[in-house]
Amino acid sequence: MAFMTEERRLIQQTARDFAMNEVLPAANRLDPEQGDIPMELRRRMGELGFFGIIIPAEYGGLGLGISEYVIVTEELARAWMSVASIIARGNGLGGGFTEAQRREYLPKVARGEFLGAAALSEADAGSDLANVSCKATRDGDGWVINGSKMWCTFADGANFITLLARTHQPSDPRRRHEGISQFLILKEPGKFPPGMTGTPIRKIGYFGWKTFELNFDNFRLPAEALMGRERGGEGKAFAHTANFLAVARVHTAARSVGLARGGLEDALNYAQKRIAFAQPIANFQAIRFKLANMATEIEAARQLTYYVADQLDNRATSDVAMEASMAKLFASEMAERVTSEALQIHGGYGYTKDFPLERYWRDARLTKIFEGTSEIQMRIISDKLLGKAGRSDAR
Fold first, then answer.
1. Residue 363 lies in a domain
2. What is the 3-state secondary structure (H, E, C) of 132-152?
3. Per the domain annotation, does 282 fall within a domain?
4. Are 117 and 89 in contact (CB under 8 A)?
5. Mind telling me the catalytic residues?
6. Pick from 213, 235, 257: which residue ends a domain?
7. Domain total in the chain
8. Per-residue model confidence (pLDDT) at position 231
9. Measured between alpha carbons, how far is 89 from 110 in angstroms, rounded to an integer?
């Protein structure tokens, strides 16, 4: 069956119309002043179902798959990557909810009324999440959290935060992932609860919302805040987080494709209008070949992203971590190259804030870092192909 069914084309067109008519003007206005994503845009996204694409219909979502998720993501990222990213604050963050929590929270998540943030990374535990040191200690009927987290985007605006913390040390140092648990922090948007503070991180891009360093000082949670109780609970969160990252990485691949497409489409338009030596620069072979290469790279990344999304939907393979890493690696590296070439085609104007291109370029650079750096993706891929470095059965 062809990937782009008629239903998916309709979803794509709906997302494209919304992105170009509503998101892009907001991005062009607000990104230069580092303004926040407007609540009206979030409300419209909720109406369109974008926060609940992969939430089952029984919980109020659209009940669709990762394939539809990446189709919508590409269209939104073409206009503003931050808007393409905020839909992940609905889709996928409730994986550790109990059945009662799913029934209570997910319908509101799908409507965009109850959105989350993920507190995973730390200063010394970025791509190496097994090195988590933020500590959760039992205290009577609850938990006490101490430590810090980095790179928690939307921590201020979220209704809940999923926190990765260590509840006990592993019995075997080689199994560092053991003893990591996930907790649900319910909060009021715009505020941090007592015992938890947040400091905005000064970023060079990814505007529209804030990214925080979080600090926990004897922060108390009730016993029921422990997530994933239906799959083992305490100390068992690492495997779920790894599975979550496979979806996050294909989501990033789609964001990368959208950013690159923005660069290509703007460069195509500019090259046909910019006159040099009495003709449009689109007539020059150097520019034409740049555009041809850009379009080819985008399509290659898109098709790889579609393939991985289809694998995740159909479970044709039991483990798609390597393929998800391939898609993320290829698409993010491509996005930086393509947006840089688009900037080059614009000449000096590309290095100004007069065109949205510089936003695509800044944001494309981030795709090579978050959800695991390009170097981490290459390690995952090479470990799958060769086995982990330093381990050999040779005698």
1. yes
2. CCCEEEEECCEEEEEEEEEEE
3. yes
4. yes
5. 371
6. 235
7. 3
8. 67
9. 10
